[in-house]
Design goal:
This protein has helices at about 1-20, 25-35, 45-75, 75-85, 90-100, 170-185; strands at about 35, 40, 110, 115, 120, 125-130, 190-195, 215-220, 225, 245-250, 255-260. The protein is of the alpha+beta class. The protein has two domains: about 40-220, Cytochrome P450 (Cytochrome p450), CATH 1.10.630; about 220-260, no CATH class. A three-stranded antiparallel sheet has the order 9-11-10, with no helix packed on it. Helix 3 (about 45-75) runs parallel beside helix 6 (about 170-185). The longest helix has about 30 residues, at about 45-75. The chain is globular and about 65 Å long.
């Protein structure tokens, strides 16, 4: 992990250097060139921002997708409903974010003035860790919060932050999750967990909520299998996206099927 961190930092430092000398029409160039009354972001600040955008945008989306798939495996009726009606995908992603989101704790805040929170007042000049864990299952905000329901009205959760701290990449994360989950359920409507539920390991992290791995067993839907009769296979050249034939062994019978 340390070596990967060092290599990525070295790469991003060189990339930022290039954007300073030869800026383009892109976000990193804007960060490297932006100034406010003569004050510019330092090299370390731009590299840190690039690192945050890259890593945060990757890990959180991975966790959103895997946590969503696991939630569906634990609620097969919801999986069937989503597979039967892809128009539910945007709402389903909102429910996955609420039900078991990819973040445990928001990034550190700092109070510039006293902040009342319920019956407590946080003094000024204090670092604050904001936990999202008790918010999204709040029964006062979400009826039956411990039940996964992809048909309930979406939104209202804080998995993507709020106000000026709202996640910059939230729209992209939602789009990625919709595409990934939609294509997964379309291609493999029958998904099974290829491990014992109790054996799944969650990453030890204060910030992130995600699994180390999510082993799945997938089955091709019968509607996409067309028996061809002969025991032959047709190899698919690299880059060929056409229908291909593959020999499968079903018990003591060998048949050739074609599927997209």
């Amino acid at each position: 992990m340390r070596v990967a961190h060092e290599e990525l930092t070295t790469y991003l430092t060189g990339l930022v250097d290039g954007k300073r000398t030869a800026p383009g029409d892109d976000l990193l160039s804007e960060l490297a060139q932006v100034s406010n009354e003569g004050d510019r972001l330092s090299q370390d600040e731009v590299v840190s921002m690039a690192f945050l955008l890259l890593v945060a945008g990757h890990e959180t989306t991975v966790n959103l997708i895997s946590n969503g798939v696991l939630a569906l495996l634990d609620n097969l009726g919801q999986m069937a409903a989503l597979g039967a009606d892809p128009s539910l995908l945007p709402n389903a992603v909102e429910e996955f974010l609420r039900f078991d989101g990819p973040i445990n704790i928001a990034t550190v805040r700092f109070t510039t003035e006293p902040v009342p929170v319920g019956d407590v007042e946080i003094p000024a000049d204090q670092f604050v860790m904001i936990s999202l864990l008790p918010v999204n299952p709040d029964a006062d905000r979400f009826p039956a919060p411990d039940l996964l329901d992809i048909t309930k009205p979406g939104g209202g959760h804080l998995s993507s932050g709020h106000g000026i701290h709202y996640c910059l990449g939230a729209p992209l994360a939602r789009l990625e999750a919709e595409i990934a989950l939609g294509r997964l359920l379309h291609r493999f409507p029958t998904l099974e967990l290829a491990a014992e539920r109790a054996d799944l390991e969650w990453r030890i992290s204060t910030l992130s909520r995600g699994l180390h791995t999510l082993p799945l067993r997938v089955r091709l839907p019968p509607a996409r299998l067309m028996r061809r009769g002969a025991m032959t296979t047709t190899p698919r050249p690299r880059g060929d996206t056409s229908v291909r034939a593959e020999r499968l062994q079903l018990g003591d019978r060998r048949c050739t099927y074609r599927y997209k």
